[in-house]
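Morning F.,

Quick status update on the modeling queue. The single chain you submitted on Monday has been processed. Sequence for confirmation:
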Amino acid sequence: MLPAFIGARLTLHLFGQFLTCVTFLIGEVVANVSRHLSPLCDPTHLLHRILVLLFMCFLGFGSYFCYDNPAALQTQVIQDMSLNTASFMQLYSWYSWPNVFLCFLGGSLLDRVFGIRLGTIIFSLFVLVGQVGTTQGHNHVCGLFSIGGESLAVAQNTYAVNWFKGKELNLVFGLQLSMARLGSTVNMNVIGWVYGRIQAMLGSAGHTTLGVTLMIAASTCLFSLICALILGFLDRRAERILHKEQGRTGEVIKLTDVKDFPFSLWLIFIICVAYYVAIFPFIGLGQDFFIEKFAFTTVQARAINSIVYIISAPASPLLGFVVDRTGRNVLWVMLAVATTLLSHMMLAVLCVCQCLLGLSYSLLACALWPMVAFVVPEHQLGTAYGFMQSIQNLGLALMSMAAGSILDLRGYLFLEVFFIACLCLALLAVVLLYLPYSRVSITSVLRGRAEPVGLSASQI
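C-alpha cells below.
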C-alpha cells in the first residue's frame, strides 16, 4: 500500500508541476502575441478598444433610425395609409406593447440562452426582419422590431461593461446615447428627402413610394447587423487571445422583489412615465404641429422637430459628466422637469423652446436612471430596472394612443394641456422625492408606519 500511495502522491505532484508549466507557457504565449500585435489588433490596447467602441455604438443605430420613421414621415404616412391621428400613434404603441411584458427577458436570454455574441446577432436580425416586414404592410411583425431594439440596448451595455472599466465606462455610455440620438437626427432630416426622391422617380405618392422609402431605411438595420457580426468576431478573438470569459448582463430578475420596493422608487417610476409621455408623443406629432401652427414647410418642420435630438447628441455625455461630478441627482431631475414644463408653455418662442427641450431631455436621462441604484439594494437592481422599463413602455403605449385621440377630438391646444398636466405630475413626484417622506418603503406606507430605507432622497 505504501509504495502505491507514494506513487500516487508523486504522480499528482508531477501533474501539478505540468499544469504550472503549461499555465506559464500560455501566459508567455499571450504576452508574446500581445507584444507582436499591432496596436489596432491588440485587444489590450486602447486603439483596438476604440475600434470596438465604434462598432458597439453603431449596434443600435439602425433601430433608433427606424424608430423615428413615423415622426419624420408623419404627413406622408397619414395620407398614404389613410389614417387618422389616433391610428397613426398606434404605430408607436405597437413598439411599446411587447416590451411591457418582455423587457424582463432580454438580459436573461443573453445570459442563459444565447450568450452575448449570438444574442446580439439574433436581436439585430429581429430588428431587420421587423423593419422589412413593416415595409410590406405586416404591422404585426413590428413586435419583432421592438423586442430586438430593446434587447440590443441591453447587449450594448453588456459589451460596454465587458470592454471598458471605471471612469471610461461613463464616457462610453454617454457616447452610446449620443449615437442613438444621432440616428434619430439623421432620420428626421434625411428620410423625408428620400421619400421625395422616390416620389419623383415613381411619378406619384402612395403605398409603393412609402414602402420603398421604408425599405431603404431598413438598410441601416442591415448595417447594424453587420456591426453585430464584426463585434462578435472581435469579442471572440479577444476571448481566445486573453482567455477571458464571455460577458454577461448580470441581471437578476425576481418579481417577488416588487413588494419590497421603497416608496422613493415608485416616485421615480412616476417621474419616468409622466416625463417621457410629454417627450416622445410630442416629437411623434411634432411635424404636423409645426406645419399647422406656424405655417412652416415640411422640410422646415422636420428640421425643427429634430432639434431635440440634435441638442441631445453632444449634450448627453457632457451633462452626464456634470451630474457625475456634482451629484444631487434629484435637484438635476427637478431642473430638467421644470425646464421641460417651461418649454411646453412657451412654444410660441420656437427655437428657444426646442433647444431647452433638448437640454432638459438629456439632463433627465443622465440624472434619473442612475437614481435607481441609490434607492434599492444591488440584488434588486435587475428587477427594478426591468420594472421601470416595463412601466415606461406601458405608459408610452397608452399615452401615445391617448395623445392621438385628443388631437383628433380636441386639437393641439388640448394636447398641450395634456402634456403640461403630465409634466406637473412629474414635478410633483420630484418634490415628494426630495422630501424626507420619500425615505419610507412602499410596504411601510401600506401598513401605516414609516421605516427608513437606505439614503434620504435629498442626499441622492
